[in-house]
TrEMBL record:
One of its GO terms (molecular function) is serine-type peptidase activity. The active site is at residues 697, 916, 974. Residues 795-985 form the Tail specific protease domain. It comes from Sulfolobus acidocaldarius N8. Keywords: Cytoplasm, Hydrolase, Protease, Serine protease. GO terms for biological process: proteolysis. GO terms for cellular component: cytoplasm. This is Tricorn protease homolog. Pfam families: PDZ_Tricorn (PF14685), Peptidase_S41 (PF03572), Tricorn_2nd (PF26550), Tricorn_C1 (PF14684), Tricorn_N (PF26549). It is an enzyme of class 3 (hydrolase). It is found in: Cytoplasm.
Length: 1012
């Protein structure tokens, strides 16, 4: 049976590789693979020891979005964990001897992209960093060391030419000094020293193939000549080379310059292709409800059920099709969208397909059925709103925006009118109503942001929400104003009658007629305070449900955003809490019942009275979702996922003209599916297919590989050396950012603990420590008891809380070290600001530092390793606000004016790991002539995404949808990056001494400019 083979390694006549999520070992003499790992996770990147007795490999865990990775070895059929870094960016790079391996990881570095090499003793699990700085891959032969920087395997962006494309550095003196060895116009990966040449993979001539150069980096030779699939993940034993290509493994012999494909047959049960049942609530995506039934889509499968008892019926094709956007029709037929063909289907409640609408609506984003079930409103990715008549089978284009998808609409109970939120501009949206004949009336002005239209079930009012109550409040941290609570509910009186909030003496009568004349003047705000409302729905008996979510920070977003529902009574003009911790809700068309969706349950309750949610069972409205049995056939599901990923790219890529040839891509990768036996292998195929766009941001981010959930390893925010004489772990470095800030201090410095460098830990939780990794004592722990011998000879016992993630502490330590260095080298004249991304953390970090640095004579803005985002404009605004004078008080220091303005001398530092909006910041920093840009060419990816599309198993796939085109360079930043004004690199040997050439150059330039 042919498998999907990955990550090969060779040692003499044995080849190791990964397939079926395990490591296999095969003799080249008999070609019979033997499985050597079982159920450790996803076991990848095997490396055979020099004596052939051990295999080191990396284990990945991914379960329900939680991930981790560490290195194991297998010997005599037994696996042993040898690292406890617990970082997803961790892999084994090779063996140094029969007992030592090289591991590359971002453990204890400030950034995920900052990976370093470690030497790990597999016998006792002790480790130490190798002093080569940032390393992506490494090859060592005697005194010669070749390290690679930049990307090593980039299946999701083929033809990459940006600043992180990589280069090779070489040392001939065992790592004391390095010099740049090789750079090409493409990715250079997997360096291997064989005889007197360095071999590597590169795609600088289009498709990745095997090349080599001599030890001076000259005499480039090409050894393979593939023209379709990439050569990837090469490895060598110093004699021969193996690599993967399209699920196969190839062997290259430099003596003969011949390449052969290894014909491998594996005998495996392919357990992960077996049908399985999955959780209902974890994969619930759509719900609808009517008077008789509840409809749900779980893992792409539509179900209907009576709320309390009876059978659960799965509709449509049972396997291999993903459905979405479920809507009940009045005759209890169901409308859904088939994601495979992106077609509208009508299903009967017995599960059969009654009608397939052949009209090409583009990518259907949302549907809504009319009250009589005879018509559907349909919006799409082409920014259109369509009306489709199920009886006449005719469609009508109602409206089209130039600014965004029409996402929200609702039907009047008569079915003659509907309302929708129409994108009028990039940040504005109006409410419109239209009748089924296509006549459109704008209800609200096009100058605010109005959304969530919902009709009163009695037909008297149209409700909506609007972000137009602009009451500014002062920002508590920076000199700025902001609008925190801007959203209020509004109603529109549809007939020429009094507002319910202005009752005359006589009885008010409303009818169900919609009178469009003068409707703009019948828009009335609810008599409630502004809040962060996100949804409004009309219920029976003059009740309105208002759903709001808390205003909170964005640095630690929850997977599910939970909010509260309040019920407003129009007659008595008051509201009360209806339900809390709600994920979503859907109301019946007649407004009598509401289906509440919580994180782990759903309830069907009366929509007009507050429910008793403390009651369980039917009395409390609890719907037993265990009645829904969701059976998944992975093989059919994976085929559907591949097709939908391809289809989404076809529909959403920013330029149809530039996606020429995409139709042939599907067949190229579909033919590999029969060999795929696990979700991890599918991920590899999806990434390769996405990479055929040769465009940035073509991502596939999986959610679950069906492994065990990775266990958290607590951290102490410190570095240790094992003291063999005293048999304890000596504290050699304690990390600290600003120790008064949360998460910026090692737990060893907590009150009552107060340990110091030089103290030695000899027991943890009553267990005497041994040589190895101290982290092995902290698996799945929140706290630990340490017995310590202090540097002055005292014995102490302390209780410490462990950090769940040390990454932020490492980052803050690095930033504060840089800031202190800049202050020292400039005698306090220069300030320092680092921006780690152009998202929420970057915004927070910029202003955290800026408020204490802006008043200095000059400023260094560091965007190295910036992960991108969307707020570069906000930071550029601040830097463009230049100091023009001072306010001088009678007492104290003079105050720069304008307040919080930037000094006139600004220097920026960037590097190859600054990308996306970090690219754009670097470009505009130069364009606006804010200052000198120093460092390396940036990442080069500026075609942005809207990551809203989930595959059936919650995998995120993205399509480059928004090309950043600039007046002077057009698309020139994409797949190239931004060149600095002054190129400066940090050499591998600089990391040993702590030298930062880029920062030093920035200080030099800034001081020079201040003195001119």
């Amino acid at each position: 049976m042919k498998g999907y083979y990955m990550y090969p390694d060779i040692r003499n006549d044995f080849v190791a590789f990964t397939t079926d999520d395990d490591v296999w070992l095969m003799s080249l003499k008999d070609m019979r693979p033997i499985r050597v790992t079982t159920d450790t996770g996803v076991s990848i990147k095997p490396k055979i020891s020099p004596d052939g007795k051990r295999i080191a490999f990396t284990t990945l865990w991914l379960r329900s979005g939680k991930q981790g990775a560490d290195v194991f070895i297998v010997e005599d059929g037994r696996s042993k964990r040898v690292t406890y870094f617990n970082r997803p960016t961790t892999w084994v790079a090779g063996w140094l001897s029969d007992k030592e391996i090289m591991v590359i990881t971002d453990y204890h570095t400030p950034f995920n992209a900052w990976t370093e090499a470690y030497k790990v003793n597999v016998n006792d699990e002790s480790y130490e960093p190798l002093p080569y700085g940032i390393v992506s891959n490494i090859s060592i032969k005697n005194e010669t060391i070749v390290i690679a920087r930049g990307y090593q395997d980039l299946p999701f962006w083929k033809g990459y030419r940006g600043g992180t494309k990589g280069e090779l550095w070489i040392s001939f003196d065992a790592g004391e000094t390095f010099k740049k060895f090789l750079s090409l116009n493409g990715i250079i990966s997997h360096p291997m020293i064989l005889n007197d040449r360095v071999y590597f993979l590169s795609d600088h001539e289009s498709v990745s193939n095997l090349y080599s150069v001599d030890m001076q980096g000259e005499n480039l030779l090409k050894h393979t000549n593939f023209s379709d699939y990439y050569c990837r993940n090469a490895s060598s034993d110093g004699k021969r080379i193996v690599f993967q290509r399209a699920g196969d493994i190839y062997l290259f012999d430099p003596q003969t310059n011949n390449t052969i494909k290894l014909e491998i047959e594996v005998f495996t049960e392919r357990k992960k292709k077996r049908p399985k049942f999955v959780s209902t609530m974890e994969y619930l995506t759509d719900v609808d409800v009517n008077q008789n039934y509840i409809g749900l889509i779980v893992r792409g499968k539509p179900f209907i059920m009576r709320p309390w008892e009876g059978p659960v019926v799965q509709l449509g094709e049972k396997q291999g099709v993903k459905y979405r956007e479920l809507q009940f029709l009045s005759n209890e037929d169901i409308a859904v969208v088939d994601s495979n063909e992106n077609k509208l289907l009508i299903l009967s409640k017995d599960g059969k397909i009654k009608q397939k609408v052949e009209k090409d609506f583009g990518r259907i984003e949302k549907i809504k059925a009319s009250p009589d079930g005879k018509k559907l409103l349909i919006s799409n990715n082409r920014l259109e709103l369509w009306l489709y008549d199920l009886e006449s089978k005719k469609e009508k284009l109602i409206d089209k925006s130039s600014y965004g998808i029409i996402r929200e609409f609702d039907w009047h109970p008569t079915g003659e009118w509907f309302s929708y939120a129409f994108p009028e501009g990039f940040r504005t949206q109006s409410i419109k109503i239209a009748n089924v004949s296509g006549n459109i009336i704008r209800v609200t002005s096009p100058y605010a942001f109005d959304f969530s239209p919902s009709f009163d079930p009695d037909g008297k009012f149209l409700y909506f929400l609007s972000a137009r109550t602009l009451d500014p409040s002062s920002d508590k941290f920076i000199f700025n104003m902001s609008f925190q609570r801007v959203i209020k509910p509004y109603l529109v009186v549809l007939s020429k009658a009094y507002s319910p909030f202005n009752q005359p003496l006589e009885e008010v009568k409303h009818d169900k007629n919609v009178d469009p004349e003068g409707i703009q003047y019948r828009v009335i705000p609810f008599p409630v305070e502004e809040d962060n409302y996100v949804k409004i729905s009309g219920a029976k008996s003059n009740k309105v449900l208002l759903y709001s979510q808390p205003i909170r920070g964005q640095l630690n977003p929850q997977e599910d955003t939970l909010g509260k529902i309040e019920i407003f009574d129009i007659e008595i003009k008051s509201k009360e809490v209806f339900a809390e911790n709600v994920r979503n809700f859907v109301i019946t068309k007649d407004g009598s019942k509401v289906l509440l969706v919580f994180k782990d349950s759903i309830r069907l309750v009366n929509a007009t009275t507050k429910p008793d949610l403390s009651t369980q069972g039917i009395k409390g409205g609890v719907v037993d979702t265990t009645r829904i049995k969701v059976l998944v056939d992975p093989e059919k599901e994976w085929r559907q996922m591949l097709f939908e990923t391809w289809k989404l790219m076809k529909e959403n890529y920013w330029s149809a003209e530039k996606l020429q040839g995409w139709d042939s891509v599907l067949d190229k990768y579909e033919k590999l599916l029969d060999r795929v036996s696990t979700r991890y292998e599918l991920s590899d195929v999806l990434k390769e297919m996405q990479g055929e766009t040769k465009t940035s941001h073509s991502y596939e981010t999986p959610y679950d590989f069906e492994t065990a959930e990775p266990l958290v390893i607590g951290g102490l925010g410190a570095e240790f050396n094992y003291d063999e004489q005293r048999e304890c772990f000596k504290i050699v470095k304690i990390y600290s950012g600003d120790p008064t800030n949360e998460g910026e201090r090692s737990p060893l410095k907590d009150p009552g603990v107060e340990l110091n460098e030089g103290d030695c830990i000899y027991s943890i939780d009553g267990e005497k420590v041994r040589k190895g990794s101290i982290n092995s004592h902290f698996i799945n722990k929140d706290q630990a008891i340490l017995e310590v011998l202090t540097s002055d000879g005292k014995n102490r016992t302390v209780s410490v809380r462990l950090m769940k993630d040390e990454k932020y502490l490492m980052y803050r330590h690095w930033v504060e070290k840089n800031r202190e260095y800049v202050h020292k080298m400039s005698d306090g004249k220069l300030g320092y600001v680092h921006v780690p991304d152009m998202m929420y953390q970057g915004f927070a970090e910029f202003f955290r530092l800026f408020i204490s640095e802006f008043y200095r004579q000059g400023l260094i803005v560091d965007v190295r390793f910036n992960r991108g985002g969307f707020i570069s404009g906000l930071i550029l605004q601040r830097l463009l606000l230049r100091r023009e004078g001072y306010d001088v008080p009678r007492n104290g220091e003079r105050i720069p004016f304008p307040y919080l303005s930037s000094p006139k001398v600004i220097v920026a530092v960037t590097n190859e790991n600054a990308g996306s909006d970090g690219d754009i910041f670097s470009y505009l920093f130069k364009k606006y002539k804010i200052g000198i840009l120093i460092g390396r060419r940036t990442w080069g990816g500026v075609i942005g995404i809207s990551p809203r599309h989930l595959l059936v198993d919650k995998t995120v796939v993205t399509q480059p949808e928004f090309a950043a085109i600039f007046d002077e360079v057009g698309l020139g930043i994409e797949n190239y990056g931004v060149d600095p004004d002054i190129e400066v690199d940090n050499y591998p040997q600089d990391y040993r001494t702590g030298k930062d050439r880029q920062l030093d150059k920035a200080i030099e330039i800034a001081l020079k400019q201040m003195n001119t």
